[in-house]
Amino acid sequence: xxxxxxxxxxxxxxAQPSTGAxxxxxxxxxxxxxxxxxGVLKSPANxxxxxxxPDLISACVTAVLTPPEGYRALFAYLGTQLVLRDPATARRxxxxxxxxxxxxQDVQRSPxxxxxNPKFQLDQLTTAAVALCREADPSGALxxxxxxxxxxxxxxxxxxxxxx
Length: 164
Known about the structure:
- This protein is about 50% helix and about 10% strand.
- Strands 1-3-2 form a 3-stranded mixed beta sheet.
- By secondary structure, the protein is mainly alpha-helical.
- The N and C termini lie far apart (about 45 Å).
- α2 packs across α5 (about 120-135).
- It has 6 helices and 3 strands.
- It has helices at about 30-40, 55-65, 70-80, 100-110, 120-135, 140-164, and strands at about 5, 25-30, 90-95.
- Mean pLDDT is about 90; it is low at about 1-20.
């Protein structure tokens, strides 16, 4: 069993839409990737608006899964890099937006994660997405770009729901 450290108070239950389901979902992130994302959170580039960890984690998922080769890159990282780490590595509890959580659930249920292939858990998929973003752009600018795109997409979706 992996140790889990709680780093938020109520972010996972922050926004309640009219359906009663939270907009964000609790996830776990390995310590090394959490530390890097925390650096992006505190970066001077993260301003106007200042994105929080649910935005940044979700942005990593979107950045990795948007390109056509994203699933392949994710599983390549899982199978060559993450698998070599200590599986008892501590995790931090955080939140991510539901849309990206559901994307990761689709990845987890995909044939690439079924027998005879190894089965990776959601925290491993989340961690791999963050790690791939860090490899692609250590400055965090890529993550902030996708956080803005995700925010605009959520606002557009809410606007179309309100007018329907």
